[in-house]
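Blinded run. Sample ID left blank on purpose so nobody reads anything into the name before looking at the predicted structure. Input follows.
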Amino acid sequence: MIKKTYTSLLLILPALLCGCLHTGGVSIKQAHLLKQEGFKLDHHNEWALGLPRRLLFNFDDAKPSKIDSENVKELAYKLKQYNLNKLKIIGHADDIGSESYNIDLSKQRADNIASIFYKNGFKKENIRTLGKGSSQPISFTKDHDSRVNNRRVTIVIVPNSF
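Blinded prediction complete.
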C-alpha cells in the first residue's frame, strides 16, 4: 500500500510542480534568458523590458541613441537564438505637447526600435508597434527626471500569435 501511494505521488508531483511554474507562455529556458536581459513578467502575464535596460529618448526625439541601438541589436540576436521572435513594441512620451503629437512621436519611437529588429532578421508580421503618447506614464510628477523616464519604448515578448 505504501509503495502504491509513493508511486502515485511520484507520478503526480511533476505535474503539480509544472503548474506552479508560471513562465508567461515561454519555456523555462526562454524565461531564464528574458530575466537575464532585464525582462519582467508583468501583471498582464507579458514579458516586458524593464529597468535598468529601459530604452529612453531625448525630448522631442524619436531616434534611439547609438548605445541603445547596439543594445537592441544584441537583444535581437539573443531573442532569435531562443526562438522568441514575436514582439509588441510600445512607444511612450512625456506630457509636454498635444496628445496627438505625442501619440505620433511615441509611434515613431516604437517604429524606429522595430526597424532594428527587422534589420536583424525579424519578420514584420511578427512585430506590432503601438504609440501610447503620454497615456501610460511610469512617473506622474512633473519634474525633468520623471519626464525623461516617461520618454521610453517598452518591448514585450508575445509567446503566442497576435
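Unblinding after everyone has recorded impressions. The chain has a mean pLDDT of 84.
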